[in-house]
């Protein structure tokens, strides 16, 4: 009997110990006040939009300890549990919720409800809904037409027979837009009476056109000017430029435009490279080189990358041997011979020019003794040349293989990406970052590379070879522009402003490239 | 009447002798099941008896029914059997194992097995030859506890052997010593049939007498010697074939579907080349095309041994050949051995062992992986109209991936070697007084190898071509010698004090001479042109070098036991090596061990639980000198550099020497208990050991500021330390059921943990390259060779799961993921998947190693089964990527269904993807880690020994064997054993689809006459 008693006693103690241990592990955290959590969100309504984030923020408190936060919205495929115990190793009595969610770029819904639930260690819950609407304003207002930022707007002085000077008023066309609503346009020409601090009410439109007539004294002078467009949310966009009342201008830069005159959109729809900067060889002296793919290409020379006015050099209709700067009257240079390089020199002061062609074979080869599209630079120990040579594109030289250029069948200096029939989609706001280099899957070689003049505003490309293994006969030599200045380690980092399909063309002979819309 | 009287007397006699009878029967040997001639059968206590006849038969008359018959024969255990009225008593005599085993070879001597104080395991030659293999170590798998043997499948591939784990990164194979001559770390050259026994010195107290090279253990191999008596001729042959299980790869239709699906899932347009649809509509089974179903294995051995009182000899001739599974590749060897010993008188004897050999091989091309990954829509050959004069241009380049045509690769294989060598040992032994032995032995091990290689010029594609043919010849010569001198004194004082002392001196020299010539651009690919002279001299390469290293050693050992109960052994070796600088050339390697044979104590006499009981323990220090001969020297290397576009020759500091280098040492202690029960039928051995290296030689990076080139500034230093801890348990059961059935079961279990205490102090040592990352991380204080990577946490089944995989603020951990991709754990919850989220995801070293050896004999039939396995080891299965189609290669059959293709379809195999933007396959992750545990049947053998009445005095046995017939494993790759073999000890466990272990089926005949 006594034995049974002790058996029962020990058995009971063992059972109790098991139960006690089980309870401790199941519950884990004792109640403090046994109350449900409290939740204070910063807002119950968030404006957002497709392709944008929204962030739910708030203060969560529970004396017993918050174990988890759930965010649910079936339509957005949002079903997130923030397990605070897993993250912090213990429950939180106070938690600052800040949770962002990215809406898909192709999101079609107009509004969504996100249910936020706070759970404490006792399993008590508090929920609150947050309304997400798709009417958020995320974009700055844009200039569709206007002077180039940091550009020059020349107003040319005319000398009358009596020696008096005059200058024609310049009508500047400004077009602006905003994805939501435009507020105003501020115009300012510093130091020009009547042109300071002008405000134009844009009335909440999503796009607006304004012609600003600038009539300045016929006195040679430069004016700092600013145009600011503001939308209803207070977002702004600014263009700074110089209005120069001058005689003939020795433009620091002149650009070759091979798009139809007046097609401003064609000038601005590129990521970079259109129009193409040409060489400034001396005072009023310029030299342009251009590879002509098709017969009949028409080109002009502009001082403003975004406009055909006020400077547009072409042929004088009255005398085709002379230049004329007139956006309306100037006739194009017509390049009739396909698959050759043209070299055109301009003398703005004398209104004269020269033009000649040279063949692809005559074009200097920046690859030096390496052959395009043929064999690798290096020779294996066994004498074989197994690796093909490419010019690559990618996040780094080692990644260059991700995007291989396609070589033009008529011009070995010319490369494309993507290949014919393939597409390359870029999204708005996407920032590229790349260099151009020869390619090997393991990144073993580093012979010919190109960098650019300005990472964010690319106009030309220069040699940047660590191995100094380039053709010294090329216009610019290794790490040196043609004017002798250094080619810095500037990666190409342009920002795409408009989503779409694009194509990259790179001419290694010219040291010029462009990313332009493509189908 | 007289006759009638006699009959009556006999009848009366028989009545009077009521308890008297006639007993007949046969006596057979348990080992060969043959009748024993000349065995003694005596009636116990009577002095009367007989001996057995030619058929092992006997007859005894007038045997009392309660008499006891005593059966005995030299070399066999005596048996006593009560008659109990039986008239026929057949007896099977077992070999006196204790007698055979009583002497165990130890370093520079022998000792009775019962007197051992350290951990030494013995395997007899007949156990080794049960398994037909080119390297005797393959046969040791599972037979010796604590010895991990990983075999490779290719012809001539030496196994990887680890004895009691790893304590160094400088080589892991043990030292092999053949008849007292150190022969390096590979015994491929040895004929298994020549081996009398192999002794594995597992702990340092046993191995310390080999000092500098004993840190990985020592294996002593004793070859067969002759015995006086008539000539015994033995001819053994085994012939059979090998076979490798065919992996199940996708056919053309599934391959195409998988290929295109990768693009479709990524929203891209496939670049599938459908040329195969017209040129090769049936597709190509590449495995069947290049892998032969069978490969021959042949083994022949003839031996003659015998001698007189003065001269004994053992001569053997052996031939072994193993073909590869491809049309190219084999390995064979011819071994000759003549061991002689001449006894001049009771004072002097001498012996000469001469063992010449020749090995030949064609390098086996490893095309298994290519056969598996090659595009199955591609035909073997181009259309015949495209053929040209170059036969190697006839193969078709893969239509859809980068794999080189395996049939073409095999056709071009042309690399072969021939090696001639001789191991020669001569010794003189003098016993000036009975208990004193002086011995001097001089041995040489010479090898000459010629290797030829030819790579033909061919072109199948821009990226599958050899523009310039290439021919090379390499001549190598190894010339090693070893001189060993010992003096041994053994005596017993006052009957109970047993004493044995040995002192010695050794000198060794190892030399290697190498010459290589290479030219390219031969006129054509013809056989006759495949000579170096035929190449273009402009591209000639000629190189050659010689290296030497030497050692001198002084050694001594004292063994003492009191009354065969208390044993103590101590040894000391002083080694001097040319590899170390002045001041550090010499090092001491002491050891001590003791044992207590409890069973001999008086208090054990009355117990009947233990048949034997012994405790033993030992400590020792051993060394390692597996470093470059010139590690102490700072050397210049030649280089070329472009100065202003001109390629210029120059020199730079190629290696940085360390003039303070010293020995790497390993300290080891071991405790063990040997027990046997039930009249010695059950044997149990348990041992626990610890090993720890210090001053481990390791190549450390120099400070970059010193200006040395980064790669070559590594300098050998004594900075590392590793340890290994483990245990071994051996169970051995031998018994007999009835008179005809004997059986034995042996189970070996062992475990060892290998830990790096310190490498260089420069942080983790990463090994095992994988997509720009490393699979393995070896850190100070951690287990070695562990896989280190991301934790794969299943597959995203839908967008909700993708969007839920964020940190607490909503930052997507895998922004490029989509349903079907692998979810990797963000271990630090920072919303960013980076190196901080890596953790230990696998350990390639097993938790447990096991060997199970079974055997029985029934009358003339014998059976043996050996199993070997490892439990708890992980394998990084790279084949999951290699045949997943990530780069367009062919895939495992069924991939189209096994890969995720919709919610709930898979939580293991990710979706098919061309771009793999989520890096499912390019991250080092637990996705690749599989349990590599396996138990493999290494041998199934059944033999039949023909009775003497059929074959007379000739012994004839036939046998059928299956080696590696089956494997029990969950591992999905081809061979779980193979993965443990590749790579160094800190880079192991990665499956690269190396040559797997084949199944081998053999028929054997054994003649004795």
Number of helical segments with 4 or more residues of chain B:
14
Mean pLDDT of chain B: 89
Largest sheet of chain B: 22 strands, antiparallel, barrel
- Beta-strand residue fraction of chain A: 35-45%
Number of strands of chain B: 52
Total DSSP E strands of chain A: 36
Largest interface: A-B, 27 and 27 residues
Distance between the termini of chain A: 96 Å
Number of helices of chain A: 3
- N- to C-terminal separation of chain B? 56 Å
Instruction: Provide the gyration radius of chain A in Å.
Output: 33 Å
- Secondary-structure-based class of chain B equals mainly beta
Q: Describe the global form of chain B.
A: globular
What's the overall geometry of chain A?
globular
Determine the mean pLDDT of chain A: 84
- How is the quaternary structure best described? heterodimer
Low-confidence stretches of chain B: 1-18
Stretches of chain A where pLDDT is under 50 for at least 5 consecutive residues are 5-11, 13-27, 374-389, 394-401
Structural class of chain A: mainly beta
| Beta-strand percentage range of chain B | over 45%
Helix content of chain B: under 10%
């Amino acid at each position: 009997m006594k034995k049974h008693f002790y058996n029962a006693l020990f058995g009971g103690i063992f059972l109790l110990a098991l139960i006690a241990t089980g309870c401790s592990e199941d519950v884990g955290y004792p109640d403090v006040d046994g109350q449900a959590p409290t939740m204070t969100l910063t807002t119950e309504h968030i404006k957002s939009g497709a392709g944008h984030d929204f962030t739910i923020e708030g203060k969560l408190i529970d004396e017993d300890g918050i174990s988890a936060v759930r965010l649910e919205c079936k339509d957005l495929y949002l079903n997130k549990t923030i397990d605070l115990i897993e993250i912090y190793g213990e429950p939180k009595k106070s938690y600052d919720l800040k949770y962002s969610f990215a809406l898909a770029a192709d999101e079609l819904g107009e509004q969504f409800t996100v249910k936020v639930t706070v759970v404490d260690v006792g399993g008590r819950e508090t929920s609150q809904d947050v309304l997400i609407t798709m009417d958020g304003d995320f974009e700055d207002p844009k200039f569709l037409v206007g002077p180039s930022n940091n550009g020059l707007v020349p107003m040319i002085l005319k000398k009358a027979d009596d020696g008096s000077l005059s200058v024609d008023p310049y009508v500047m066309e400004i077009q602006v837009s905003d994805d939501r609503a435009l507020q105003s346009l501020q115009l300012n020409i510093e130091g020009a009476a009547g042109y300071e601090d002008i405000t134009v009410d844009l009335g909440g439109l999503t796009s607006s056109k304004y012609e600003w007539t600038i009539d300045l004294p016929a006195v040679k002078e430069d004016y700092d000017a600013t145009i600011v467009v503001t939308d209803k949310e207070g977002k702004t966009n600014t263009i700074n430029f110089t209005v120069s009342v001058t005689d003939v201008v020795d433009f620091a830069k002149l650009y070759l435009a091979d798009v139809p005159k007046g097609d401003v959109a064609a000038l601005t729809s590129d990521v970079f490279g259109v129009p193409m900067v040409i060489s400034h060889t001396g005072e009023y002296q310029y030299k342009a080189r251009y590879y002509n793919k098709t017969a009949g290409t028409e080109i002009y020379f502009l001082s403003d990358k975004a406009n055909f006015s006020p400077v547009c050099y072409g042929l004088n209709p009255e005398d085709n041997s002379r230049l004329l700067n007139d956006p309306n009257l100037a006739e194009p240079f017509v390049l009739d011979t396909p698959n050759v390089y043209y070299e055109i020199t301009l003398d703005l002061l004398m209104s004269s020019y020269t033009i000649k062609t040279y063949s692809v074979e005559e074009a200097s080869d920046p690859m030096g003794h390496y052959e395009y599209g043929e064999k690798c630079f290096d020779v294996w120990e066994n004498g074989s040349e197994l690796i093909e040579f490419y010019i690559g594109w990618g996040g780094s030289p080692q990644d260059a293989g991700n995007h291989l250029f396609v070589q033009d069948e008529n011009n070995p200096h010319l490369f494309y990406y993507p290949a014919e029939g393939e597409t390359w989609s870029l999204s708005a706001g996407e920032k590229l970052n790349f260099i151009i280099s020869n390619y090997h899957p393991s990144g073993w070689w580093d012979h010919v590379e190109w960098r650019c003049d300005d990472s964010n505003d690319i106009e030309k490309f220069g040699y940047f070879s660590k191995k100094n293994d380039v053709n010294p006969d090329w216009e610019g030599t290794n790490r040196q522009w043609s004017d002798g200045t250094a080619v810095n380690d500037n990666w190409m980092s342009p920002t795409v402003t408009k989503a779409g399909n694009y194509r990259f063309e790179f001419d290694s002979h010219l040291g010029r490239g462009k990313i332009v819309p493509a189908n | 009447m007289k006759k009638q009287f006699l009959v009556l007397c006999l009848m009366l006699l028989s009545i009077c002798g009521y308890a008297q009878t006639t007993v007949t029967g046969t006596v057979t040997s348990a080992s060969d099941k043959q009748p024993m001639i000349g065995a003694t059968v005596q009636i116990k206590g009577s002095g009367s008896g007989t001996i057995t006849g030619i058929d092992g038969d006997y007859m005894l008359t007038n045997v009392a029914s309660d008499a006891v018959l005593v059966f005995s024969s030299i070399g066999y255990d005596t048996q006593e059997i009560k008659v109990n009225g039986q008239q026929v008593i057949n007896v099977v005599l077992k070999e006196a194992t204790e007698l055979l085993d009583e002497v165990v070879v130890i370093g520079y001597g022998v000792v009775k097995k019962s007197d051992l104080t350290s951990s030494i395991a013995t395997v007899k030659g007949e156990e080794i030859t049960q398994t037909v293999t080119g390297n005797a170590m393959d046969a040791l798998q599972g037979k010796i506890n604590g010895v991990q043997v990983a075999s490779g499948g290719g012809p001539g591939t030496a196994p990887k052997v680890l004895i009691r784990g790893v304590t160094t990164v400088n080589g892991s194979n043990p030292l092999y010593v053949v008849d007292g001559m150190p022969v390096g770390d590979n015994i491929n050259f040895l004929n298994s049939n020549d081996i009398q026994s192999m002794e594995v010195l597992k702990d340092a107290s046993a191995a310390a007498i080999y000092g500098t090279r004993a840190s990985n253990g020592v294996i002593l191999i004793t070859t067969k010697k002759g015995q006086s008596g008539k000539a015994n001729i033995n001819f053994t042959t085994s012939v059979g074939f090998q076979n490798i299980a065919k992996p199940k790869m996708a056919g053309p239709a599934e391959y195409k579907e998988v290929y295109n699906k990768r693009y479709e899932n990524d929203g891209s347009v496939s670049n599938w080349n459908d040329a195969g649809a017209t040129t090769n509509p049936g597709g190509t089974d590449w495995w069947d095309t290049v892998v032969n179903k069978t490969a021959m294995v042949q083994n022949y051995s003839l031996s003659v041994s015998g001698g007189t009182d003065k001269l004994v000899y053992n001569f053997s001739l052996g031939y072994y050949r193993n073909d590869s599974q491809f049309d190219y590749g084999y390995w064979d060897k011819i071994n000759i051995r003549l061991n002689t010993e001449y006894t001049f008188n009771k004072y002097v004897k001498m012996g000469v062992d001469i063992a010449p050999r020749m090995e030949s091989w064609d390098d086996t091309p490893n095309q298994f992986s290519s056969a598996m990954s090659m595009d199955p829509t591609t035909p073997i050959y181009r259309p015949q109209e495209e053929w040209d004069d170059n036969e190697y241009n006839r193969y078709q380049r893969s239509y859809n991936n980068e794999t080189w045509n395996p049939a073409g690769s095999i056709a071009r294989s042309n690399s072969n070697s021939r090696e001639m060598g001789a191991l020669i040992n001569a010794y003189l032994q003098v016993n000036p007084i009975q208990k004193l032995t002086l011995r001097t032995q001089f041995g040489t091990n010479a090898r000459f190898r010629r290797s030829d290689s030819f790579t033909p010029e061919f072109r199948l594609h821009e990226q599958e071509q050899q523009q310039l043919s290439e021919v090379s010849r390499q001549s190598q010569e190894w010339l090693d010698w070893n001189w060993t001198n010992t003096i041994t004194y053994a005596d017993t004082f006052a009957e109970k004090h047993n004493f044995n002392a040995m002192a010695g001196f050794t000198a060794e020299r190892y030399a290697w001479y190498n010459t290589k010539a290479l030219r390219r651009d031969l006129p054509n690919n013809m056989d006759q042109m495949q000579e170096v002279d035929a190449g273009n001299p402009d591209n000639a390469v000629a190189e050659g070098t010689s290296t030497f290293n030497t050692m001198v050693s002084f050694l001594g050992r004292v063994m003492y036991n009191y009354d065969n109960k208390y044993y103590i052994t101590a040894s000391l070796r002083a080694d001097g090596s040319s590899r170390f600088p002045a001041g550090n050339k010499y090092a001491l390697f002491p050891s001590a061990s003791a044992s207590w044979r409890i069973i001999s104590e008086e208090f054990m006499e009355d117990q009947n639980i233990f048949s034997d009981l012994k405790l033993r323990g030992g400590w020792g220090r051993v060394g390692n000198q597996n470093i470059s001969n010139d590690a102490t020297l700072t050397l210049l290397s030649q280089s070329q550099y472009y100065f202003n576009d001109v390629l210029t020759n120059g020199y730079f500091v190629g290696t940085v020497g360390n003039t303070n280098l010293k020995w790497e040492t390993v300290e080891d202690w071991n405790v063990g208990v040997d027990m046997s029960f039930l009249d010695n039928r059950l044997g149990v051995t348990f041992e626990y050991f610890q090993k720890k290296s210090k001053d481990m030689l390791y190549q450390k990076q120099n400070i970059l500021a010193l200006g040395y080139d980064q790669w070559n500034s590594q300098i050998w230093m004594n900075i590392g330390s590793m340890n290994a801890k483990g245990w071994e348990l051996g169970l051995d059961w031998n018994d007999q059921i009835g008179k005809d059935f004997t059986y034995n079961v042996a189970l070996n279990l062992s475990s060892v943990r290998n830990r790096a205490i310190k490498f260089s102090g420069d942080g983790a040592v990463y090994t095992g390259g994988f997509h720009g990352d490393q699979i393995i991380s070896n850190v100070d204080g951690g287990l070695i060779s562990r896989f280190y990577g991301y934790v794969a946490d299943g597959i995203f089944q839908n967008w909700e799961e993708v969007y839920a995989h964020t940190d607490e603020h909503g930052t997507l951990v895998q922004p490029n993921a989509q349903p079907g991709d692998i979810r990797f754990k963000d271990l630090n919850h920072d919303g960013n998947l980076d190196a901080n989220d890596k953790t230990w995801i696998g350990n390639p070293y097993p938790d447990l190693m096991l060997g199970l050896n079974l055997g029985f004999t029934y009358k003339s039939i014998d059976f043996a089964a050996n199993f070997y396995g490892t439990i708890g080891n992980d394998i990084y299965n790279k084949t999951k990527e290699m045949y997943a189609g990530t780069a367009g290669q062919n895939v495992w059959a069924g991939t189209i269904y096994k890969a995720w293709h919709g919610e709930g379809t898979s939580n293991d195999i990710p979706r098919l993807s061309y771009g793999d933007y989520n890096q499912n396959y390019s991250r080092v992750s637990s996705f690749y880690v599989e349990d590599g545990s396996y138990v493999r049947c290494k041998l199934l053998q059944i033999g039949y020994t023909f009775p003497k009445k059929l074959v007379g005095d000739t012994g004839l046995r036939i046998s059928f064997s299956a080696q590696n017939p089956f494997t029990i494993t969950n591992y999905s790759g081809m061979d779980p054993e193979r993965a443990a073999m590749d790579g160094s000890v800190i880079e192991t466990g990665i499956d690269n689809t190396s040559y797997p272990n084949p199944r081998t089926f053999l028929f054997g005949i054994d003649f004795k006459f």
